[in-house]
Amino acid sequence: MISVEDISRLLPHRFPFLLIDRVIDFVPEKSIVALKNVTCNEQFFQGHFPEWKIMPGVLIVEAIAQAGAVLLFNSIPDPERKFAALSKLDRFKFKRMVIPGDQIRIEVQWIRHKGRIFRMKGKALVEGEIAAEGEIFATVLDIEELADKKKASAPARPSPSAGS
């Protein structure tokens, strides 16, 4: 089992955007099973929709992607030096609403990877019924390369004028 504290060490996400509570099963380069407990206190329910509280489908997809990232980071060398960016979604279908009180069981299977691109298939289940399923693609980047690009794209600051 991987706790939420351990998940927080792997992912950059924090409340309210950390969408998996724990990992209950994990096989490197093969699969992961994570849980998300959906409560009525979730911030997104304030606007989606106040009278009909339904978890947004994009957040269910994000939870699947986060579980996939935990699988990825526990399967590659030097994960602390990497950043995973969601790069593609394919064949997603939404089949059941997720509401307060539901527990989402998130299952992600590693399909393959080529270079920096990783392909996984995920599904979110509630009480054994599929709520959402589809394929996610992640691109793994080196944190150092990202930092160098950020520095290179930062606007130059004017130097202070003498005598001002």
Note the run of SSEs as H and E: HEEHEEEEH
Strand content: 35-45%
In CATH terms, what is the architecture? Roll
Number of domains: 1
> Counting H and I runs of at least 4 residues, what is the number of helices?
3
Main pleated sheet: 6 strands, antiparallel
Mean pLDDT: 91
* CATH topology description: Thiol Ester Dehydrase, Chain A
Task: Describe the secondary-structure layout.
Blueprint: H1 4-10, E1 22-27, E2 31-37, H2 57-73, E3 82-94, E4 103-114, E5 117-126, E6 129-142, H3 143-153
Antiparallel strand pairs: 1-2, 2-4, 3-6, 4-5, 5-6
Q: How would you characterize this protein structure?
A:
The chain is an alpha+beta fold. The chain has a single domain (4-148), classed as Roll (Thiol Ester Dehydrase, Chain A), CATH 3.10.129.10. It is built from 3 helices and 6 strands. It has a 6-stranded antiparallel β-sheet. The radius of gyration is 19 Å and the shape is globular. The mean pLDDT is 91.
